[in-house]
Amino acid sequence: MKNNVTLRQLVAVLTGGFLGTMTRYLLSLAIQQVLGKGWPYDILLINITGALLIALISTLAETTMLIGPTRRLFLVTGFLGAYTTFSSLALGTLNLLNGGATLPAFLYLLTSLLGGLLAIVLGVRLGQGGVYWLKKRPRMRSLGLYNTTHSDEQVLEEEHRV
């Protein structure tokens, strides 16, 4: 398979990244205004919701035709890639440690990791549940929206032919 990147794909990632960054910034400000800046609640909530959404969208994209390759690039790589960052997690932990809050720093790190893993599991389950629900609907079955025969590579190739 060729790895030709199209302008459409680049614009999808660029646009998604811009919107994800702005969403993260504005949501972070709102969370800090409500919960304060003493503990990195904003980073924790943003990273956990991002993990949930990445798992949910990836599951739907892999098992249905509801989210095509370009939309997946926009949502997962662009928007959610900019919305969640590991570097923010590390910085939040370091800030707590530098402030002498050793126990809160480790609790934050543990909560972030476990919360992220649980969010991924929940996102996959929600995605699988959504696919199951769609498959039970006769109208959805007749539209052929599930990806049972096409691999991601086949879908990408078909999209490039259009």
Automatic annotation (TrEMBL):
Source domain of life: Bacteria
Protein name (Swiss-Prot/TrEMBL): Fluoride-specific ion channel FluC
Kindly list the positions annotated as binding Na(+).
G81, T84
Q: What switches its activity on or off, per the activity regulation note?
A: Na(+) is not transported, but it plays an essential structural role and its presence is essential for fluoride channel function.
Q: Which PANTHER family match?
A: FLUORIDE EXPORT PROTEIN 1-RELATED
Predominantly, its location class is membrane
Chain's role: Fluoride-specific ion channel. Important for reducing fluoride concentration in the cell, thus reducing its toxicity.
Species, as recorded: Ktedonobacter robiniae
The protein's location, in the record's own words, is: Cell membrane
